[in-house]
């Protein structure tokens, strides 16, 4: 990937305040994905394939995941799932690293793999004529990786450099420390890319063993969007992966409960020599499947998303001039996610900004949101849907969301009604359930 | 029946570029001003970017608190960017809501308030933005290199500006900059998406034609004299990771040599994506420098970047040094690879492969209406829309000889600045 040396400077921060785009214009020819234009097929070995055609541009995107995330990692080898996922592309029974990437890059295609807590994910894109090649390489890397020792060591050095850079990143370290507070003694407290000592402890044989045991078709999801007929896409996936089997694939371990904080906890990470400190403040939030998810999501929009960055942006940035970025986010997934406020401020302003954010959270759970504020965010959620579904990448995301969280193939057609159904009372009850100004986790990373 | 692309110029000098795309019910509208960080003399660095921030602080018709809410309520995405050569503002909206964006842009071209209180509060926001940038080793290195590479040309300072100037500039400096440069005759409007061109043109004309033209804003004309030798510099800072940036003076976007340089970059460091929105690039593991630096474990990553600018700027190679090696060793290996491409022409097949990659990346970018509208206007800032339309053809016309000549002309040590970020060691501990 390219990184520009002289970047453009922008009024709106690129991270945080802009996330999924979501909207509705029922009269337009390109409707949202729904049961009549999504093809969903489960192959005999358990792989679920979702496909939707879009012939506006001659390209195609694939995305998906397998049930082999960092939950299986032993503490002393934390990062094993991610190391394995990234190492899959470094050699197969048919091709070495250079041959794999030569095949992809020669046609302008891209494929990458990485692991999160629950799953290992992949994403790829190519011109539609090259979809069989893309799927062929995906299948090869998933089924017959060889983990060449030399490549494993090269990759280890790259991962360790990544961790050294992470240790210097105030935003990453504040976020990691925040997770350690709210998820104490829970697997979510562990960073899925591990620690330098755990990455050093992983052997080549560990990668091979991890792959042999955990990689398999059961629970695998693959979505395709772009210039290919859905039936042809399914047939191509079937050809590449339809005869894959792994009789030993274990069930993922159950998630232990989370112990809520009994009082606020503050933890600071010192990173000398930096000009700015990052703050993360918040609590454990809902899961994606919780009935409160939509109310929490709309409440979060009012709190720290809508407009420039909701009430948080208004207080911390617009009124006080304390930060270039200050916003809230709701990260809901398979298990309980986080509901957090993030800001980057001058090290001398940490206490002041933290105080403002606490007060704003206090106001939020005391009075909730006004009918007008809620209506604004509802209108925003509904209005932005066409933008989020404009590109093939957006459609693949939508298809994976539908599958991962059992939303139903008609979810994006029902979406506007689901958004409108939320009342200010529900937002207030949800805010009170998840946020308590006396039981907040506060993580700060910076020079002092 | 209208053609998909059309252009017009209003009587006040505003240039309008329209492109119909009916793939989704979306319209993206951009207004471009020919003013950027290169228009800032010493003492006023960061002025253009700060003005850009102030453009969100309201007019009598659209007060600050109203703007963001109005766009967000309609599900729009909006932002602004300041670059070396230009400043631009965009809104991507559901097609039936675009009128609000057009009215807003017409209004804030002339009516922004620059309220003194808002100016004061935004000063610390921009300083905070700069402090966040300073946390990044590559920002610090890039800033030092730019300053070393451009002694005369105003490309010599970072877009965000120097702290001293951010502290000292006044509301009057900001407002004066706005009044001088924000004029219809200094602007280009580019709109792409789901509209009918004649109706869109009429609406833009109705909203913008009454805005008064101004004197053509002066631009600093201070070309950089040819470099007479290599510059080397070192920055020290926290961390454990060493970075090397090798920056060669490079042709501007509208020069014929820009295209052989693009192919050269692709061969050396992997293809660049033209996609600013919604379409990433691809990996670069089969590029020459990846194979000779990363595969050989001298570096853990290599990136190339050829900036598209109106005046000659830089071609930058960024090397993340392997923990077992020193900056000098990576630089020497990189130089060997550059000498190889200068001494022996690249094969036709290798060039053809770069063209196929560029075609794929171009196709990915065309999925996104915001990206289409961006290029419609951006190309106008340094060449013209034809630049974008003929981009792939011009790449395809690059010969092995032209490529070799570009390597010999631009990738000389005498034409570069080499910067090293040396980590002082250790970092944070819990």
Q: Radius of gyration of chain B over alpha carbons?
A: 23 Å
What structural category arises from helix and sheet content of chain A?
Answer: alpha+beta
Helix and strand string of chain B, N-terminal first? EEEHHEEHHHHHEHEEHHEEHHHHHHE
Number of helices of chain A: 16
Taken in chain order, the helices and strands of chain A follow as: EEEEHHEEHHHHHEHEEHHEEHHHHHHE
Give the total of domains of chain A.
2
Strand content of chain A: 15-25%
N→C terminal distance of chain B: 66 Å
Number of helices of chain B: 16
CATH homologous superfamily placement of the largest domain in chain A: Metalloenzyme, LuxS/M16 peptidase-like
Class by SSE composition of chain B: alpha+beta
CATH architecture of the largest domain in chain B: 2-Layer Sandwich
Q: How confident overall, as mean pLDDT of chain B? A: 93
- Percent helix of chain A, as a range, is 40-55%
């Amino acid at each position: 990937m390219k990184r520009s040396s002289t970047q453009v400077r922008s009024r709106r921060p690129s991270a945080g305040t802009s996330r999924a785009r979501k909207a509705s214009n029922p009269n337009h020819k390109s409707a949202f994905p729904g049961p009549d234009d999504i093809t969903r097929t489960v192959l005999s070995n358990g792989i679920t394939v979702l496909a939707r055609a879009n012939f506006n541009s001659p390209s195609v995107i694939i995305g998906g995941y397998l049930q082999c995330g960092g939950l299986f990692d032993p503490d002393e080898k934390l990062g094993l799932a991610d190391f394995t996922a990234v190492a899959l592309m470094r050699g197969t029974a048919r091709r070495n690293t250079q041959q794999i990437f030569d095949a992809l890059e020669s046609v302008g295609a891209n494929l990458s793999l990485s692991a999160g807590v629950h799953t290992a994910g992949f994403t790829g894109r190519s011109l539609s004529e090259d979809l069989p090649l893309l799927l062929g390489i995906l299948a090869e890397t998933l089924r017959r990786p060889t983990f060449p020792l030399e490549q494993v060591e090269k990759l280890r050095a790259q991962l360790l450099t990544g961790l050294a850079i992470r240790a210097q990143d105030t935003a990453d370290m504040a976020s990691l420390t925040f997770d350690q507070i709210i998820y104490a003694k829970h697997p979510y407290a562990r960073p899925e890319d591990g620690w330098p000592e755990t990455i050093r402890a992983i052997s080549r044989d560990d990668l091979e063993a991890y792959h042999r045991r955990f990689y398999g078709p059961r629970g695998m999801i693959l979505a395709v969007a772009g210039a290919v007929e859905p039936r042809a896409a399914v047939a191509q996936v079937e050809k590449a992966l339809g005869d894959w089997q792994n009789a030993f694939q274990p069930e993922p371990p159950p998630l232990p409960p989370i112990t809520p904080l009994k009082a606020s906890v503050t933890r600071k990470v010192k990173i000398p020599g930096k000009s700015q400190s990052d703050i993360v403040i918040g609590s454990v939030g809902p899961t994606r499947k919780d009935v409160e998810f939509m109310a929490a999501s709309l409440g979060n929009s009012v709190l720290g998303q809508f407009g420039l960055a909701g009430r948080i942006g208004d207080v911390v940035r617009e009124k006080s001039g304390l930060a270039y970025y200050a916003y809230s986010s709701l990260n809901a997934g398979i298990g309980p996610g986080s509901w957090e406020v993030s800001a980057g401020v001058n090290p001398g302003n940490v206490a002041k900004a933290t105080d403002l954010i606490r007060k704003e959270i206090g106001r939020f759970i005391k009075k909730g949101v006004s009918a007008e504020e809620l209506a604004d965010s509802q209108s925003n959620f509904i209005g932005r849907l066409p933008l989020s579904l404009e590109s093939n990448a957006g459609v693949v995301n939508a298809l994976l969301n539908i599958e991962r969280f059992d939303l139903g193939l008609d979810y994006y057609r029902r979406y506007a009604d689901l958004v409108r159904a939320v009342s200010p009372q529900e937002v207030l009850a949800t805010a009170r359930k998840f946020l308590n100004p006396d039981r907040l986790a506060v993580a700060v990373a910076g020079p002092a | 029946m209208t053609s998909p692309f059309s252009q017009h110029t209003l009587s006040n000098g505003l240039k309008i570029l329209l492109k119909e795309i009916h793939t989704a019910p979306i319209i993206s509208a951009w207004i471009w001003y020919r003013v950027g960080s290169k228009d800032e003399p010493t003492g006023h660095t960061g002025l253009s970017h700060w003005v850009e921030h102030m453009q969100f602080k309201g007019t009598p018709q659209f007060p600050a608190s109203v703007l963001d809410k109005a766009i967000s309520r309609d599900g729009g995405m909006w932002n602004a960017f300041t670059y070396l050569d230009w400043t631009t503002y965009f809104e991507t909206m559901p097609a039936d809501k675009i009128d609000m964006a057009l009215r807003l842009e017409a209004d804030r071209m002339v009516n922004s308030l620059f309220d003194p209180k808002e100016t004061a509060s935004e000063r610390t926001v921009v300083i905070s933005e700069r402090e966040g940038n300073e946390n990044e080793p590559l920002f610090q290195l890039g800033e030092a290199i730019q300053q070393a590479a451009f002694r005369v040309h105003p490309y010599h300072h970072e877009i965000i500006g120097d702290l001293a100037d951010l502290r000292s500039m006044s509301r009057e400096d900001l407002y004066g900059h706005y009044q001088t440069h924000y004029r219809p005759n200094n602007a280009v409007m580019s709109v792409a998406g789901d509209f009918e061109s004649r109706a869109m043109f009429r609406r833009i004309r109705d909203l913008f034609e009454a805005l008064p033209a101004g004197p053509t804003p002066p631009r600093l004309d201070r070309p950089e004299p040819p470099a007479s030798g290599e510059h080397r510099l070192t920055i020290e800072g926290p961390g454990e990771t060493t970075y090397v940036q090798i920056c060669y003076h490079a042709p501007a976007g509208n020069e014929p040599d820009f295209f052989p340089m693009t192919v050269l970059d692709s061969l050396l460091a992997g293809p660049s994506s033209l996609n600013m929105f919604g379409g990433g690039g691809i990996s670069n593991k089969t590029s020459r420098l990846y194979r000779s630096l990363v595969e050989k474990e001298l570096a853990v990553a290599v990136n190339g970047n050829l900036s598209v600018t109106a005046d000659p700027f830089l071609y930058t190679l960024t090397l993340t040094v392997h923990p077992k090696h020193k900056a000098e060793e990576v630089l020497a290996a990189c130089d060997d690879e550059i000498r190889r491409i200068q001494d022996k022409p690249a094969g036709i097949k290798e060039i053809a492969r770069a063209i196929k990659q560029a075609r794929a990346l171009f196709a990915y970018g065309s999925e996104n209406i915001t990206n289409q509208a961006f290029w419609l206007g951006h190309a106008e800032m340094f060449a013209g829309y034809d630049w974008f339309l003929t981009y792939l053809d011009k790449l395809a016309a690059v010969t092995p000889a032209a490529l070799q000549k570009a390597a010999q002309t631009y990738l000389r040590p005498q034409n570069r600045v080499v910067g090293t970020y040396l980590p002082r060691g250790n970092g944070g501990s819990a």
